[in-house]
Write a structure and sequence with these properties.
Biased composition (Polar residues): 35-47
GO cellular component, one term: endoplasmic reticulum
Number of strands: 19
Subcellular location: Membrane
Family: Belongs to the CDC50/LEM3 family.
Strand content: 15-25%
Shape: flat
Order of helices and strands: EEEEEEHEEEEHHHEHEEEHHHEHHEEEEH
Radius of gyration: 38 Å
Number of helices: 11
Biased composition (Basic and acidic residues): 14-31
Structural class: alpha+beta
Strand order of the largest sheet: 7-19-10-16-14
Number of domains: 3
Distance between the termini: 8 Å
Length: 417
């Protein structure tokens, strides 16, 4: 057991303060004795063993030192350290508590965990299944029809006649790998935060392979991520009479569909003066009329340039190849089916990589949108825990084993001797 060593070697007074003259290491003194010499910052202890061989130990003299003598008296070891090292915390002697995990207790803990996980899984799965969702594939409708009908045939509940509660409008893409390493790295975060680069060397590494426009100007923003922004635009409609539709308002503003962290720190436009000053060498392509129209930049609160809400949503990459991104929140509910979606700009190509495009209207709950995967995951893990619990209980019943003697854990054994 580690004990505190409280033996001290006090430094002597310096010369000139009335102390006796010091004796050198080669002076006559009894065998086994020691002599302390001190300057302004060190203590030197000369030690002579039984064989008469001198030795010296030197160390800092800022604090009193603790010394350990060898059993045969032939030398002295000096530890010039503070008493902080001998606290209960430093010596790991703090009082602690931990459960004694017998097989029965272990099985009980795992069984309790399985009950909790299974309950949460069932709750999440039931909540997810109760969320109404309507989805329509419009990949093949380019040039065929501009208005898509959504009725009960496209919903998770084929008997539903209206959609109520909080409703959100999404677009969904499949077979689109936003999580590809080259795609993820092809962006300039400092450029997205408002810094204007005027030479290719500043953006070539960050945005390769897409950093120059066809006329040789630097793209702002550059990179595969920004240049592949989703450009299809939508309007939600209800039918009033034959051939006459009424627009259902949707909230597409930044505060509604964007993460506040993105709004506060990640996206900022260069000033108008900077855009005009560097227009000859930098292509601010997001401010072109076609992009302003596609991303609804003229709608109040949606924002322009890299501060546009749809652009910000797109720049938060998806982890899986099949994903959906929010487009807006429906402001008028309930909606009686059928409802219609006007695709005002169907320009985004997904057929070249075998993808599909969907429009989705979904309810929202405390869980978010419809997602059975989380509930299934909880149920699977809970089932595994239940099986482990049953195996432990069966093994204990077939081959019972008593706990060993735990008297060695008594606190008295940790007391200092």
């Amino acid at each position: 057991m580690l004990r505190q060593n409280r033996s001290k070697v006090a430094p002597t007074r310096a010369e000139g303060e009335g102390s006796e003259p010091r004796r050198g290491a080669d002076s006559d003194h009894p065998r086994g004795s020691s002599l302390v010499r001190q300057d302004s910052s060190f203590v030197t202890i000369s030690v002579q063993g039984h064989d008469g061989t001198p030795a010296a130990v030197t160390g800092s003299s800022k604090r009193a030192s603790a010394a350990d003598s060898d059993e045969d008296g032939e030398g002295r070891r000096v530890c010039l350290c503070s008493n902080r090292a001998f606290t209960n915390f430093m010596q790991q002697r703090m009082q602690a508590w931990q459960p004694l995990l017998s097989p029965t207790r272990t099985a009980g803990i795992i069984g309790l965990a399985s009950v909790i996980l299974l309950s949460l899984g069932v709750l999440i799965l039931a909540t997810s299944n109760s969320i109404l969702e309507c989805k329509v594939d419009y990949t093949d409708d380019v040039g065929v029809r501009d208005i898509i009908e959504i009725d009960s045939r496209h919903c998770t509940d084929s008997q539903v006649t209206e959609l109520s509660g909080s409703l959100y409008f999404f677009y969904e893409l499949t077979n689109y790998y936003q999580n590809h390493r080259r795609y993820l790295k092809s962006r300039s975060d400092s450029q997205l935060q408002g810094k204007v680069y005027t030479t290719t060397g500043d953006v070539k590494t960050a945005c390769s392979p897409r950093y120059l426009a066809s006329d040789g100007r630097i793209l702002d923003p550059c990179g595969l991520n920004a240049l592949s922004v989703f450009t299809d635009s939508f309007e939600l409609l209800r039918k009033r009479s034959e051939g006459r539709y009424e627009v259902i308002p949707m909230d597409e503003t930044r505060d509604t569909i964007c993460w506040h962290f993105d709004l506060d720190s990640r996206f900022k436009n260069p000033s108008k003066e900077e855009r005009e000053k560097y227009a000859s060498s930098v292509d601010f392509w997001l401010f072109e009329p076609a992009m302003r129209k596609a991303l609804h930049m003229d709608v109040p609160g949606v924002g322009e340039g890299v501060e546009n809400s749809h652009f910000i949503v797109w720049m938060r990459e998806a982890a899986l190849p099949n994903f959906r991104k929010i487009y807006g929140k429906v402001e008028e509910t309930p909606l009686k089916l059928p409802i219609y979606v006007n695709i005002t700009g169907d320009t985004y190509d997904v057929k070249s990589f075998g993808g599909r495009k969907y429009v989705v209207i979904s309810q929202a709950s405390w869980l978010g949108g419809r997602n059975a995967l989380l509930g299934i995951f909880y149920i699977v893990v809970g089932a595994v825990c239940l099986v482990v619990c049953l195996v432990i209980m069966y093994a204990q019943a077939q081959n019972p084993r008593r706990m060993g003697d735990i008297s060695w854990l008594r606190k008295a054994l940790y007391a200092e001797g």
